[in-house]
Amino acid sequence: MTPKIDDALLQAQLHRTLDGTHLAxxxxxxxxxxDNYSDGKHRILVATDRLSAFDVVLGTIPxxxxxxxxxxxxxxxxxxxxxxxxxxxxxxxxxxxxxxxRPLPVEMVVRxxxxxxxxxxxWRRYQAGERRFGDVTLGENxxxxxxxxxxxxxxxxxxxxxxxxxxxxxxxLIRRNAVDAETWARMETLCLALFAVGQAHAQQRGLILVxxxxxxxxxxxxxxxxxDEIHTPDSSRYWHADDYEARxxxxxxxxxxxxxxVRRHYASIGYTGHGPPPPIPDDVxxxxxxxxxxxxxxxxxxxxxxxxxxxxxxxERNLHLA
Length: 322
Known about the structure:
- This protein is α+β, with helices and mostly antiparallel strands.
- The protein has 9 helices and 14 strands.
- The chain has one domain: 2-Layer Sandwich (D-amino Acid Aminotransferase, Chain A, domain 1), CATH 3.30.470.20.
- Strands 1-2-3-7-6 form a 5-stranded antiparallel sheet.
- A hairpin with a 2-residue loop joins strand 6 (87-92) and strand 7.
- Helix 2 runs parallel beside helix 8.
């Protein structure tokens, strides 16, 4: 893909990324990537440019928040008939207005390939001798990045910022009263349906949706809906499809369009989430930005138009706070 955003613009944006907000709104809560505000009826989610990996905020990536917010809105609209969600409006490139929902204390990780570099990844756990993942039992001598025999749902707890997610089983979640058996069944069915739609769309666009994580919550009317984000480069892993088989046969890593690029950089220098992270080098930040933008354009078929205004005043104007 020919770059539409030149290096000079990216270099300039390195110094005006959106690291955080303190808006004149009630109910502020800071997540790893999004700043949340709530009046009890609606939630305002501001997608910052913070990048989180290994359950740690590593730094910022130019226009990452705009990519996440607009791509997630695209997916929410595309999949609403299959999987209900919390989206109400998108009043700003970095802002989503959503229904205030009661989140379920679990992340539903859906996996189709044996991959990953983090300690909680399915590949690392397989290397350590684990063979049962959700309803899927894996055989011996499998290779990294191979397809799983069937899509697996492997839940984790949802850690607060600064904490680490914990791999759990369906039975453990039910035993802890995090969800009941009926709710789990509904969650699993919805997640598998949504993942299948995502896989089919990605395939049409020359990509592989490798894995993803979903968050769900209870809407005010009592319905179960998807919240936060879906199928973005933060919540999902994407590979280019055209050379996947050739690279797999040579034992090479697939070409990725997600934050796995940044994870691999940190893994290469020995950082896996323990202790304060080294800063992200500027060349890695720029390449990560290009990959986020490329993911947006490939998945939507729409050119990404970066907003170069100072984000805080713009957000305040668009939310009628200024």
